[in-house]
Every structure is written in structure tokens, then in C-alpha cells.
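Figure-free illustration: sequence to structure, shown twice.
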Amino acid sequence: MRGSIFESTMQVRPDDIDMNQHVHASRYQDYVLAARYDQRARCYSMPMEEFLRRRLGWVVHTAHLEYKRPLFMGDSFRLRTHIAEFFDDAVRVNFEILRDHGGKLSCSGWFRYTLVSSATGRAHAIPSDIKEKYSV
């Protein structure tokens, strides 16, 4: 199953830069998390605040990133995501980060996010209404 592709636009900030004068590897994970936060509200009509109200949250179970080309200070980029697969209590989200200048791929990969109950700290089955909203 492949869900709709959603896109967020971002820009490299000074604190993203490492001693090699390009974006530090760890920041790419932050970019994906920020894009998913944006897209939950804007694209799925299910903002993070709704999950919090239900005492649910998403945690990163696995992250796989493949770095292709570095991003540099001031670069703007598009971050595309789509839900590639549903599990009982998790989703696999594929992503691509593309530089605005030239549209070249900077990084791609996937995250497996597990839905957890904040009451128990344990994995929680994805409710059918959430699965429906995420199935666009």
C-alpha cells in the first residue's frame, strides 16, 4: 500500500551546520520529524494535539537514512513523505529530501513509527479512525 505523497518546504539554519560546513547527519532525522508534524495537521487533518488529547504518541522504532548529497547553509529543500505500510501498531513512512536548487536528491529512507499509549508507555493498536485518516 502506498499513501499520498505530501511535501513540506524547509530551509537549512545556521545551527544545522557541522564542522564540515554542511548539515550534520542527525539533523536529517529532525527534518523528517518536523515535516511529519506539519503534515499531520495540514495533510491528514489529524494534528499531533489530537493524539495527545487521546493520550497517544508516535515514537521512532527504526530509522533508515541514505545520504546522497549534502545540504549547505541557506539551502532550501522539499521533504516528501508517504505512508508505505501499515502494521497493527505502527506505520512505515518513506521520505525523500530534495534540494530546491536543481531538485537533486539529498537524502532518502524510511522510518517505522510505533503508536504508544502515554498511560502505559506500551505499543497501542492504531484506532480505525486514525488508520482511515492516514490512508489518504
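We now fold a second protein in the same way, so the two outputs can be compared directly.
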Amino acid sequence: MQGTILEILNQFGYIGVFLLIMIENIFPPIPSEVILTFGGFMTTYTAMDVWGVILAATAGSVMGAVILYVIGRVLNTERLERLFDGKLGKHLHLKKGDVKRAENWFLKRGNKAVFFCRFVPIVRSLISIPAGVAKMKPGSFLTLTFLGTFIWNTVLVLLGKIAENAWETIAHYVDVYSMVAIVLLALLAVTVIVIFVRKRCLKKDDS
């Protein structure tokens, strides 16, 4: 995959950065660290400049996030409630009221979640869906998404430029950070789910 990414960047420049980052937001397994650090390195031997790469990457990030946000709006709370009110909800020990509680939580803390999750691999893409489901104000969503992705993109592009031929080393370290973050988030998610299901089962036994 890396070879294809580098070929696209070398051939299409800013447009390649924009398209790859947009797709990366919709399909997280595409490594943004490779796109951004190599994009930074390209500014040392092509006519591309740092701010052009950063802006192209940020535009791609925002566009990808908007697509997922729209998907979340289409899913909406009502449809999820109907889903959880059926067999799936019973198997997972979930109720349609849990959807509303999750929505209320997001409405209270969604701004921080949308901003800070932009620095966490995979989650930085997926956070756009619950934002859409919770009907987060489009203006707030776009502003926080732009700021978070702009910072993330700026750091990696600048590191790629500074590292020059050693850009792959930077990409490797960012990849390690990504793996650690994913493992920690997975453990946290499993812990929360186990605690939630146990509490729900205990309540069911007591009733």
C-alpha cells in the first residue's frame, strides 16, 4: 500500500494529498502518517510547499469527516433506538434508552471529543459518525474538525520536512504511537462494555 501512496503523491501532488487524506478519513487503515510525512519530505525536492501540503491535507480531512457526519445524520437516534429495541439490543443487553443517554453525553462533551479525538488513530475518523447521530451543530463540528486536523497535519508535515530522507523513521514512530493508542482504546472499550453489561445483568437478576 505504501508504494501506491507514494506513487500517487509523486504524480498528483496536492490533489493526491487531498484525495488520499479524504479516503483515509473514511477508510482508516490507510496510513495518514505515511501520506503526511512523505508530503512534508516532498517539499524539499519539488515545487510543493509546506503550507500547500498542510492545507490540502486539512481540506481532505474535513471533507472525509463531513461524509461520515452525514452518514451519522442519516442513521440518527430514532433508527438506532429501533435497532436496539429489537433482538440485537436484547443480545447485547442494550435498550433504546441507552441511545438517548449516549446522545445526551455527546451533546454535553461532544465538542471536546470531536477535537481531541482528531489526534487518535482510527477514532479520529469514526468520531464523526456519533457527532452526526447526535445532530451536533454543523458549524461547531466543522470548526473543531478543522482545528484538530490542522494541528495533526501541521505536526506530521513539518516533521517530514525536517527529517527529509529519514521521513520513514518519523512515519514508523507515529505508526508505533498509533498501535499503542489503538490497543489502549480497545482495552478501555472492552472494560467499559464488560462493566456496563455486568451492571445491566445484575439489575436484571435483582428485578
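Summary for the second example: The chain has a mean pLDDT of 79.
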